[in-house]
Design goal:
- The protein has helices at residues 18-28, 44-62, 77-86, 99-104; strands at residues 11-14, 31-34, 65-69, 90-94, 109-110, 124-128, 131-135.
- The chain is α/β, with parallel strands linked by helices.
- The strands form 3 sheets. A 3-stranded parallel sheet has the order 3-4-5, covered by helices on one side. It has a two-stranded parallel ribbon with strand order 1-2. A two-stranded antiparallel ribbon has the order 6-7.
- A hairpin with a 2-residue loop joins strand 6 (124-128) and strand 7 (131-135).
- It is elongated and about 65 Å long.
- The termini are far apart.
Length: 141
């Protein structure tokens, strides 16, 4: 566990479930602190994270098309996209401004209002890899 994070772990806090206590104290050599009984707010950020993951799984099973914001932590994007595609759900990336990130992850569609500057003055721009290439002399029919 210590090799998985780039910092020293002194203590881990969890709910009162038996899953972690024995492992942490015996195998990992990390102090384990349990939250107070009937006080889930002591661990609210973890509870919210778990709920968010459960909601994502439910959305992917229920809807054919879901979206992820650019505010989604990048370390979760590959697994979230993989889960959605495994359940035949397409994923839209909202507000992804970096072409590098757009091509790095397996989104089905993406958008960003900052891309509008590429289309100013009636220009049409295509991407060649992650490099925008303007199309000259395009005429609407």
């Amino acid at each position: 566990m210590r090799a998985a994070v780039p910092f020293e772990i002194d203590c881990i806090q969890s709910d009162n479930g038996p899953e972690f206590g024995r492992y942490l104290t015996l195998n990992a050599g990390v102090r384990h602190r349990k939250i107070r009984k009937r006080k889930p707010n002591d661990n609210a950020h973890i509870e919210k994270f778990n709920r968010t993951i459960q909601d994502w799984k439910n959305y992917c099973k229920t809807f054919p098309y879901v979206g992820l914001s650019s505010a989604t932590p990048v370390q979760y994007l590959p697994k979230m996209l993989e889960y959605a595609h495994k359940h035949k759900c397409q994923v839209h990336g909202f507000a992804f401004t970096s072409p590098t990130k757009v091509f790095q992850y397996d989104f089905d569609t993406v958008d960003s209002t900052s891309w509008m500057q590429l289309f100013r003055y009636g220009n049409i721009t295509m991407f060649n890899g992650d490099i925008p290439r303007p199309i000259k002399n395009y005429k609407l029919k």
